[in-house]
Amino acid sequence: MPLLPKKLLVVVLLQLVILASLPLYKSLNVAVGTDVLLEVTPVISHSTAEGTTVVLVYGGLTQLTSDLIGQKVFVAGEPVFVALRQVGVGWVPSGASSNKPPQGTTYIRGVVAEGNAVITADGTRARLNTNRLVVRYGIEDYVVAEGTVFPSGMGAMRAQVALEEGGEGVLKQLFVDDQPWP
Q: What are all long-range contacts of 88-91, with beta carbons under 8 Å and residues at least 24 apart?
């Protein structure tokens, strides 16, 4: 066998091994990540053949107010690190920064969807007349099977989220009145 096809075969096999290991890597991160319970409010978005998409609004995490961001300025599209603290069985935001928190801090990483500033033509940041940020974490959409019944008088809903090392959240399970749902 000529040398070129052998090299090509090795490259292709290496790519297949890398692609096959990505889901395993993600599963391992979810398994060893820090689990937190976050309060959510479900909003039914739309139905498709695959199921109903429920948009989860994460209480104090979706809209960060001035008591969490202080005088910091954030532009849409920038990363934001939200420190969390445990209150009872749930977790709530305790601060926000554009920098990764110190070691030992439990935090979730998001992206600013609506900031409190814009970048002007000369490249400077101009603060907007708002004291809040809208943040997305990549865990807002949850698809439930078509025909899933939403509990009548649905009580408190929480989301179990695994936080990976870099603060990325992975939605693991929803709970209604402390019972797994659906």
A: 89/37, 90/36, 90/37, 90/38, 90/39, 90/158, 91/36, 91/37, 91/38
User: What pTM, to 2 d.p., does this model score?
Assistant: 0.78
Higher pLDDT, 1 or 19: 19
Place 90 in a pLDDT band, splitting at 50, 70 and 90. very high
Between CA 98 and CA 108, with CA 103 as vertex, the angle to 5 degrees is 50
Query: Do the Cβ atoms of 162 and 169 come closer than 8 Å?
Result: yes
In this structure, of 13-17, 82-86, 100-104, the range with the lowest mean pLDDT score is: 13-17
C-alpha to C-alpha distance for 38 and 90, rounded to whole angstroms: 6
* Strand bridging mode 52-57 / 141-144: antiparallel
Alpha carbon distance 133, 77 (integer Å): 11
Counting Cα atoms < 13 Å in the Cβ hemisphere of 178 gives 2
Q: Which residues partner with 18 through β-bridges?
A: none
Asked if pLDDT for residue 159 goes beyond 90, the answer is yes
